[in-house]
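Appendix C. Worked example: Enoyl-CoA delta isomerase 2, mitochondrial
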Amino acid sequence: MSKTKYQDIILTIEGQIGTIKVSLSLQFPEYQNNNIQFNRPKALNSFGGKLMAETIAAMRELNDHPDTVFTVLTGEGRFFSAGADVRGSGLTSSDETYASDAEKKLEYITRFAPGMEMLRSIIDHKKVFVVALNGPAVGGGAAWFTGSSDILLASSSTYLQINFSSLGLVPEYGSAINFAQSMGVHRANEMLMFGRKLTAEELQQYGIVNHIFPVEGFQESVKGFLQEQLKANDGKSMMEVKRLQNAPLRDGRLVAVVNAMDALAERFVEGAPKARFAEKKKQLEANSKKRASKI
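Step 2, the predicted output written as structure tokens:
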């Protein structure tokens, strides 16, 4: 078990499998695998609170663990992750004024640094990085991890939707390159430019998803699948396959992360996302009021 106490994720370590798990529930007695688990129950595992910093810390912990081979990032509940926490985000709600566009850009680059470090920690991670999509992933939740994974497993309820363009944003932290390498430029463009929703079956057809498991018993299916691989294959050899494949790509992926962060900061300097985020926030608040009125 991890010695660190996390609030927005749950990290468990069992044998050669370490798992980071995101959860919509505060109780996880049934999950006894190695986990990093997102734990923001009222925000569909969106990226807010301490989730990002804790995910980075857990990745570091598992990277240095002497026994683990697989690092699994998964979730629990209806969503793997809903991406940015629009209602709780301070990125578009600030009325702060800046002396120049350069000063404004520096402020946003500083805010994006945790995301950059999270992607670097994934790119440089020594263990086999498995993303296990227990359900839909939207925005950053779909882009950051799925494109950077070594192995991608999905439940039959999974879909990916990356709606950056609709919010005046750009593909974040190198995701444009990652998806183009996996599914081809034209399919990646349609997904990233137009926000096309892709089902688990389409993702498998496009070469993104390795295996699809039923929703019922998904976590146990993932656990069983990885344990089978550990029985059949040498752990160090599997990690060496990853190292040899990724070594020539490493610098290019980091450059892509920096380029994407630069482009994203420029979008905020231009003010493009502010109006779109404000409209989205109004929609979410209106939907919440409607649901509350029916109770």
